[in-house]
Structure to design on (876 residues):
């Protein structure tokens, strides 16, 4: 019997089996996530390296971070060119600190740089650390973030793919991607925001949150905040999200049952009423109080984690070098308040500063003939603090509005003009910009005349859509979670915008706006997700958490005002302002 | 739990473990983030030599140096010529003040006399390319009450550029060698170190004129400068100028480049060089140089 017909047929069988495996409805989601992650990783790698390396030149801020990797730049860092190669150098003491202040510049970006340093020799790149290896690391992490976003997005698979592609396109844009080959701390923050969105969507996929879900969101939030202190504005969005729904924890439920048996009075406090009471109003009040107590108890683990996040953030922010505060105060007064002031001497008197310093308007902290050269400088340092600056802007709302306009103009500028995107190679002009994929750059330039309509409209509109989504009857918990993400991101973006304006002010404002820009860009696909969530139902393959109600514990009480089934529509427990029913 | 879930759970667990292992492994293999290595302890020894090769190590804002000193016969960039104690109200601060205030307070802390003495320079030597850099206690030392200031001599350099490396000690350079690399010379109006081709050599010190003297006019100032230079030129070259017909000197009046009051300030300068406008030479005319040596 001839065997020659078996071999071609067996390879076809293998292919058919493989395709069948890949397209099996049970693993369709997993395959989609892996393919999306892999594809966008490759796209980012191509975007950063094909043709020519695309990065962002060092403004001088790179040293405070890179020195912690025991490396020094080969040659003088230049604004005109990306200088990615660093040689080994043993920095001693405060030579590696924030501006020589003696305080280290801590950032989670250090972790990515550690990997980049380990990868540098593996990739055959020169020096002890080459930022092109960082580009590879960031691309891999970006691919992972895309895969996780795809997994977490509570939509049909094709809709997830479209929405997550929107996230990815925002990241590969010329306004964002070059940061992945740079000595700055922004990459960790940018990637952290993606993981945070994925974490929140995962957390809110069911009517109850879980301890692991809360831990993941906390980790993503802290990673992002610890990347760059200005991202602490994330708290404004993340904390309400973590407290939005009660926590499902069988362990805690078991502990509560144990406590209730040992202390029956405690159990009675939160027990269902045995029968009807003649005192209807009193009963209502007791039910309201009991509901509140139950709501608080059910969110206690989340509240504890929120407390940890807040405490960690306060410690981190408090550890920031006093030098940074000094720089911010100088730039607020002399670069932000005075240059546009019709009465600079009067403004200085209002701030308690010698009016003679008005001549330094427009000069930065680093200027040798600027405010630091004034004999009144020490008095300035002792007098001006954050409260004075905030009070000044509060008393001059018109000028605050003008400042906001400058912020919007900086946002529409999208990328710092003075930093080049290319290596010093033949054919490259100094300070040249990468325009290989610059949709944001072009779009924002076109929208500049309409900036007061487009950007506040987008931010506030996203907030409104998010709230509306929360109240949408007939939606499952997962899609309503998109509403929470919209609320969190829009609040964070507005807070970021003002954090930049009220910290370093006009100094390097375009570069400092990158996280606001990124948050704004992410609102686009999030709005698309919101539309898909309302227009389309969930994918039946979506793996939603199911609570296991137990009748006698406040954590899971079927039928009470606090306990929710996974498929129930919106309840008062989730509407804004009702985190504690 | 069904089989696909078990597989998925296993894959997730393995993947998470791999990532965490990578993170922990990479973090453990790297030095932890934070300040540079070594104890935050300054060397306060006069005559010590320091190798500070990176721009940040001598930048205006980076006010402390806690690197171990090096052998002065080895390459280095600064040498300590004086250690003084900072006094005044700034020294009372519990936390180390802003570097701006420290540098301003330290402007007049280091003594020019000690600087010249360390280099072996006299008032006749016009120093080129060397100046003072100050180092203050680290923030931790300051908290413990340390208030000394270390005055180092270093090569002149722009902010955020590294100083030149010295291959030999700079101590007593003006007496031990001809120090032509560290003297001011001139060729067609451009100042150059005397180790390079030049036509004239500057003799110190500069003669500052008061406002009243400036008001008397240029002719007066030139005459005063000539009288000032005559004795000094002879002392500089080690013999009366009359015995050196190959040399001549010129007395000039200039606006000092470093003066904040440059519009009204004037100084007199003494230049000596070979007779003839286009005569070029290298090295220094200063007597008291080492035989056949160059700095």
């Amino acid at each position: 019997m001839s065997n020659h017909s078996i071999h071609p047929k067996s390879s076809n069988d293998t292919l058919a089996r493989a395709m069948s495996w890949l397209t099996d409805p049970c693993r369709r989601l997993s395959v989609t996530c892996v393919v999306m992650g892999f594809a966008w990783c490759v796209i980012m790698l191509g975007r950063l390296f094909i043709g020519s390396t695309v990065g962002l030149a060092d403004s001088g801020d790179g040293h405070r971070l890179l020195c912690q990797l025991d490396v020094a730049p080969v040659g003088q860092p230049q604004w005109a060119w990306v200088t990615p190669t660093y040689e080994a150098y043993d920095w001693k003491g405060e030579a590696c600190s924030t501006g020589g202040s003696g305080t280290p510049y801590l950032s989670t970006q250090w972790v990515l740089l550690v990997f980049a340093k380990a990868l540098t020799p593996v990739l055959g790149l020169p020096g002890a650390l080459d930022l092109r290896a960082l580009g590879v690391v960031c691309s891999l992490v970006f691919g992972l973030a895309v895969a996780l976003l795809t997994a977490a997005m509570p939509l049909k698979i094709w809709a997830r793919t479209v929405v997550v592609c929107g996230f990815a396109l925002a990241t590969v844009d010329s306004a964002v991607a070059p940061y992945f080959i740079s000595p700055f701390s922004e990459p960790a923050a940018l990637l952290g925001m993606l993981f945070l969105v994925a974490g929140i969507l995962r957390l809110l996929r069911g009517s109850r949150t879980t301890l692991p879900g809360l831990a993941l969101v906390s980790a993503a939030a802290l990673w992002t905040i610890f990347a760059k202190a200005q991202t602490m504005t994330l708290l404004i969005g993340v904390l309400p999200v973590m407290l939005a729904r009660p926590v499902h924890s069988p362990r805690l439920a078991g502990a509560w049952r144990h406590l209730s048996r040992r202390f029956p009075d405690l159990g009675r406090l939160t027990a269902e009423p045995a029968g009807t009471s003649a005192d209807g109003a009193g009963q209502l009040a007791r039910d309201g109080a009991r509901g509140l107590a139950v709501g608080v108890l059910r969110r206690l683990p989340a509240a504890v984690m929120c407390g940890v996040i807040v405490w960690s953030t306060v410690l981190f922010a408090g550890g920031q070098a006093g030098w940074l505060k000094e720089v911010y105060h100088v730039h607020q007064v002399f670069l932000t308040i005075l240059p546009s002031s019709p009465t600079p001497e009067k403004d200085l008197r209002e701030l308690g500063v010698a009016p003679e310093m008005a001549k330094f308007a427009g000069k930065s902290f680093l200027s040798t003939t600027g405010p630091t050269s004034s004999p009144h400088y020490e008095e300035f340092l002792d007098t001006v603090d954050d409260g004075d600056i905030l009070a000044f802007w509060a008393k001059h709302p018109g000028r605050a509005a003008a400042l906001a306009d400058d912020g919007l103009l900086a946002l529409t500028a999208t990328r710092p003009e003075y930093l080049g995107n290319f290596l010093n190679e033949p054919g490259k002009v100094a300070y040249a910009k990468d325009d290989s994929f610059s949709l944001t750059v072009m779009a924002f330039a076109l929208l500049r005349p309409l900036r007061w309509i487009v950007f506040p409209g987008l931010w506030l509109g996203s907030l409104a859509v998010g709230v509306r989504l929360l109240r949408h009857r007939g939606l499952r918990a997962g899609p309503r979670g998109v509403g929470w993400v919209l609320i969190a991101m829009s609040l964070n973006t507005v807070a970021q915008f003002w954090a930049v304006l009220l910290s370093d002010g006009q100094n390097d404002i375009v570069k400092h706006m990158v996280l606001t820009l990124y948050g704004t860009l992410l609102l686009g696909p999030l709005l698309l997700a919101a539309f898909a969530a309302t227009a389309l139902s969930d994918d039946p393959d979506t793996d939603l958490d199911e609570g296991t109600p137990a009748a006698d514990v406040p954590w899971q009480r079927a039928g009470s005002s606090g306990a929710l089934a996974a498929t129930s529509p919106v309840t008062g427990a989730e509407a804004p302002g009702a985190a504690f029913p | 739990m069904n089989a696909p879930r078990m597989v998925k759970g296993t894959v997730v667990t393995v993947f998470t473990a791999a990532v965490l292992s990578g993170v922990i492994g990479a973090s453990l293999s790297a030095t932890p983030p934070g300040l540079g290595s070594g104890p935050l302890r300054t060397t306060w020894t006069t005559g010590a030599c320091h190798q500070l090769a990176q721009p940040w190590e001598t930048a205006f804002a980076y006010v402390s140096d806690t690197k171990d000193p090096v052998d002065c016969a080895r390459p280095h960039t600064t040498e300590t010529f004086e250690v003084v104690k900072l006094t005044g109200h700034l020294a009372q601060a519990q936390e180390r003040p802003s570097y701006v205030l420290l540098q301003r307070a330290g402007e007049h802390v280091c003594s020019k006399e000690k600087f010249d003495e360390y280099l072996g320079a006299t008032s006749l030597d016009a120093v080129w390319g060397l100046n003072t850099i100050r180092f203050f206690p680290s923030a931790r030392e300051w908290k413990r009450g340390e208030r000394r200031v270390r005055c180092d001599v270093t090569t002149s350099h722009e902010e955020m550029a590294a100083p030149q490396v010295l291959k030999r000690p700079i101590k007593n350079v003006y007496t031990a060698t001809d120090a032509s690399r560290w003297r001011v010379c001139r060729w067609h109006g451009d100042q150059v170190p005397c180790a390079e081709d030049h036509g004239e050599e500057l003799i110190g010190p500069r003669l500052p004129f008061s406002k009243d003297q400036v008001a008397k006019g240029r002719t007066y100032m030139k005459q005063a400068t000539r009288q000032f230079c005559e004795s000094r030129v002879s002392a500089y070259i080690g013999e009366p100028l009359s015995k050196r017909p190959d040399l001549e000197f010129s007395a000039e009046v200039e606006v000092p480049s470093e003066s904040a009051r440059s519009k009204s300030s004037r100084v007199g300068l003494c230049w000596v060089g070979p007779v003839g406008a286009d005569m070029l030479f290298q090295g220094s005319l200063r007597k008291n140089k080492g035989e056949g040596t160059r700095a």
Q: What stands out?
A: Chain A has a mean pLDDT of 87. Residues 322-406 of chain A form one domain. The first strand of chain A starts at residue 71 and ends at 73.
